[in-house]
Amino acid sequence: MAKNPTDGLGLNTMAKHRLKLIASLENLRQSRYLTRKISFKGRLTSALVFVFEDQPYSYINHCMHMQRPLDCEQDAIFDNGGRYLRCSMHGFIFDPKTGECQSPVCLGQRLQTLRLHEMDGDIYFAEKHLTLID
Ligand code: FES
């Protein structure tokens, strides 16, 4: 049986190569949200990264209603109560934990989730087909 090349943290060597550093968890906690320019599956776009109820989340910054970034009109991604993600273009709201739209026109559709990994206090993208663009 082949030896599993894990690093003791549950990551094998291939998985570690997929990690792209975003920020420290502390930095992310202190920010309302961060955006990162990325290429994902060959498409240039941006990612939203934020902490909600002490858990980090990331989605492609792309509202399915009219194909706009959620923060296109305001430098904000949450509603006033901080309970839902909110697109600043027409105000559609999304569950921060699932990315599922709660507004009638797009009810049930979801923002594209990006997998994250936390290691030694830092947050990384853990997506094979994602490249950071700087
Ligand atoms: S483009 Fe997001 S709500 Fe219309």
Features:
mainly beta, four-stranded antiparallel sheet, 2 helices, 9 strands, 34% strand, disordered N terminus, binds FE2/S2 (inorganic) cluster
Can you offer a commentary on this structure?
The chain is mainly beta. The protein folds into two domains: 16-62 and 112-134, N-terminal domain of TfIIb (Single Sheet); 70-111, no CATH class. Helix content is 8%, strand content 34%. The chain is built from two helices and nine strands. The chain has helices at residues 13-17, 25-30; strands at residues 19-24, 34-40, 43-52, 55-60, 85-86, 93-94, 116-119, 122-126, 130-132. The strands form three sheets. Strands 4-3-2-9 form a four-stranded antiparallel sheet. A hairpin with a 2-residue loop joins strand 2 and strand 3. It is globular. Mean pLDDT is 91; it is low at 1-8. Bound molecules: FE2/S2 (inorganic) cluster (FES). The site of FE2/S2 (inorganic) cluster has 8 residues, from loops.
Brief overview, please?
The protein has helices spanning 13-17, 25-30; strands at 19-24, 34-40, 43-52, 55-60, 85-86, 93-94, 116-119, 122-126, 130-132.
